[in-house]
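Example record for the data management plan.
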Amino acid sequence: MTANAASVLVVDDEPDLRTLYELTLLREGHRVETAASVQEARQKLRAQHFDVVLTDMRLPDGQGLELIMELRDAQRRERCVVMTAYGSAENAVEALRAGAFDYLTKPVDLKQFRAVVASAVQGTGGVPAPRSARPGTKPAAALHDGCAALDRLVGDSEPMRTIKQHITKVARGMAPVLVRGESGTGKELVARALHANSQRADGPLVAVNCGAIPENLLEAEFFGARKGSYTGATQDRDGYFQAARGGTLFLDEIGDLPLSMQSKLLRAIQERSVRPLGSTQEETVDVRIISATHRDLAADVQAGRFRQDLYYRLNVIELVLPALRERREDLPALCEALLARIAQESGQPAPQLTPQALAQIANHPLTGNVRELENLLHRAMTLSEEGTLQLGHATAPPPVAPPAPEKPAAPVQTPEPLPAPAPAQTLQELPSDLQGWLDQQEREILVRALRDSGFNRTAAAVRLGISLRQIRYRIARLQIPTPQDCDGADDAE
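Corresponding structural encoding:
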């Protein structure tokens, strides 16, 4: 008997498959019981506890899903793996939502079968033991951290109460969560709240902006790299999956991943293992996946821009965040909280939010949601005097709409002409350094666009008709300084 030997219940109505699974598990050193129906499985489960339950989805007298839900409701610790011959992603997602550890599609690949069972036996990727059962933990402090993370989601409107309730409910499980919402609605805050209220809160939370990584570096960044695997790799380096072991991996803007990387990510999630670049060995990883996007991934699937199988893997539970226009009643509380935070970070007293200032803010479209509101308040607070918030000199940039997916960006109308080049750089006197002259012109345009947008790089990129990745590259190449408090804020949530 191996060190990782476990008791396993196999539930399948096909005798040949039952025998195949039993023999495979016996060779791995596990103790195996079998059942051919839901009723027989119930009898076995009443008689003893198991470490793992492997069940077919469709059985002669019911659904394997019934067993999973009964075990969940009874708070049993068996980890359940669903096997289905129908290849239905919807059925698999339903099982994961009900509390299943994982699912396998028939005909089952025995290598994957053994890997999933091993993960379930070891608890790799499963629901960890409650905090109170772990030595050295402080349940009271953990509870406080979870509440604090929820409190950062400011607002008591009906949509926000619903979101907070859903976070509290789904945080306890291991099912992947897809957070969807417009830019600036607080997707990263939701991910942090999910992590802080989960049984993985003691582990790390690793946040990754999928749209900010060059395509040629994606594999090394996600899975790690070994010394000598590429030019400049002078030592072994862990990737995001390894860094998030025992905790949560937050994949922001998941819709920006290229198709080639999507297939590799899918395999890592399914196998719960990664192979670092330049390595011949796979490493087991124990992470919970939370992803976020402002895109309509279902539409991207239909258009062939996003893998359907990965979509179903990620979208087990979906949380849709409301836009700020859908919860205007939260504006007073949001303004107060944001002003307090800005004041604390700047070391200044928080200005008084007058009814007149609040009315001005309420009349603004705030298409950039909470992030735009924060930028507006930041500018107003910087320019205000005598302890009262004044918005007269903090006019927000004109609202911008995201570009249509398949259409080129429309020409942008600027409110005033761009500054003319210096006299020494006119056509009458040609520049001696053409590249330097062009860089200076580009730098001036970028700086102006960034200032006009409150250093919101997303808004600046849209206004200039370029992508977010392009504006990041140009900012870095031209060494344009940005305020520390805004650095990365426009594309992190």
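Summary line stored alongside the record: Residues 423-491 form a domain with the Arc Repressor Mutant, subunit A fold (CATH 1.10.10.60).
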